[in-house]
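Run log // design_07
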C-alpha cells in the first residue's frame, strides 16, 4: 500500500467463480482493502441453495483478512421498476434472496440498480421500486443496508437525479436500512460534472443538499467513456476517460468520500487490468 493511503478501503469487483469464499482470497491477493461480489450468477434468475460450509468459510476469511467493507451487488436481470408483473415478481424475489444471503455472509451493503420503467412512466416506476424495497425489508429482518445506485440517465431509467434517489429513500421510510451508492461514471453521464476540483466540490455539495452525504455509504469509482450528460453507461479505466485524472484525484481527496468503501468496476483489456486500475487509484489518492 502506498504511503498516505493506508486509511483507504478500496478495491474492485471480484469473481465468485468456484466458491463464494474464493472471492476473498482473490481480493486479498490483489491488494484490495474493500471489494464487491455478486451473490450468484448475475446473468440468470435461478438460485442454488447457499452452501453452509461455503458461507462459513467466506465469513472466516473476511474476519481473517480484516474485510468489513464488503459490498454485494444485485444481478443484471432484475428490474424493480418493471411494469411486467412476472418480471417484477421475479425481481422482488431476487432482492429478498440477496438480502437474506448478504445477511448470512455478514455483508453490510447490498447495491441495487433501480431499473427501467419500460415506458410506463417515472411515477409508476418509482412506485414499483418503493413497494419492492418495502416488501424485501419487511420480509428480511437483518442488518443489511440497501444502497440505491445512481444511474446514467439512459432512456426510461430511474435514479439519475439526486432528488429522485432521496424521494425513493423517503418513501421507503427505512432510513437505517436504505442508503446510496454513488457511481462517478453514472453521475458524470447524467450531467453532474466531476472533471475538476471545483466541479467535484459543486456536485458533492448538490449531492449533500439533495440527498445528504451521510446517506452515501459507498462509492463506485469509474471513469467514463461518454461525455458529460451523454447518458452513456460505459465505464473506462481510471484516468483514461472523460472525467480524467484531475477529477478522480479530487474525488479521492474528498474527506467524506475517503472514509467510504470504494469499489472500481473498470474494464479489463490490453491497456490495463484490475490491479493496474487499483495502482492508478492509489497513486491518485496518495
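design_07 sequence
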Amino acid at each position: 500500500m502506498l504511503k498516505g493511503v493506508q486509511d483507504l478501503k478500496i478495491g474492485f469487483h471480484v469473481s465468485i467463480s468456484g466458491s463464494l469464499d474464493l472471492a476473498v482470497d482473490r481480493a486479498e491477493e490483489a491488494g484490495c482493502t474493500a471489494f464487491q461480489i455478486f451473490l450468484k450468477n448475475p446473468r440468470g434468475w435461478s438460485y442454488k441453495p447457499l452452501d453452509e460450509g461455503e458461507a462459513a468459510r467466506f465469513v472466516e476469511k473476511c474476519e481473517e483478512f480484516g474485510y468489513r467493507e464488503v459490498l454485494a451487488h444485485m444481478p443484471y436481470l432484475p428490474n424493480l421498476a418493471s411494469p411486467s408483473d412476472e418480471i417484477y415478481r421475479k425481481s422482488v424475489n431476487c432482492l429478498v434472496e440477496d438480502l437474506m444471503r448478504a445477511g448470512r455472509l455478514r455483508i453490510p451493503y447490498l447495491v441495487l440498480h433501480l431499473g427501467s420503467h419500460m415506458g410506463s412512466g417515472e411515477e409508476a416506476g418509482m412506485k414499483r421500486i418503493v413497494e419492492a424495497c418495502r416488501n424485501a425489508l419487511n420480509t428480511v429482518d437483518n442488518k443489511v443496508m440497501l444502497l440505491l445506485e445512481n444511474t446514467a440517465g439512459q432512456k426510461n431509467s430511474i435514479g439519475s437525479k439526486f432528488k429522485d434517489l432521496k424521494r425513493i429513500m423517503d418513501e421507503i421510510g427505512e432510513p437505517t436500512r436504505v442508503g446510496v451508492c454513488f457511481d462517478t461514471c453514472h453521475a458524470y453521464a447524467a450531467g453532474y460534472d466531476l472533471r475538476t476540483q471545483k466541479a467535484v466540490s459543486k456536485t458533492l455539495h448538490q449531492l449533500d443538499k439533495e440527498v445528504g452525504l451521510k446517506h452515501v455509504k459507498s462509492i463506485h469509482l469509474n471513469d467514463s467513456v461518454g461525455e458529460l450528460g451523454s447518458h452513456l453507461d460505459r465505464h473506462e479505466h481510471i484516468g483514461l476517460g472523460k472525467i480524467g485524472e484531475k477529477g478522480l484525484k479530487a474525488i479521492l481527496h474528498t474527506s467524506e468520500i475517503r472514509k467510504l468503501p470504494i469499489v472500481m468496476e473498470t474494464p479489463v483489456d490490453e491497456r490495463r487490468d484490475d490491479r493496474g486500475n487499483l495502482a492508478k487509484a492509489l497513486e491518485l489518492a496518495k
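The beta strands are 9-12, 35-38, 70-73, 109-113, 145-149, 178-183, 216-220, 223-224, 235-236, 261-264.
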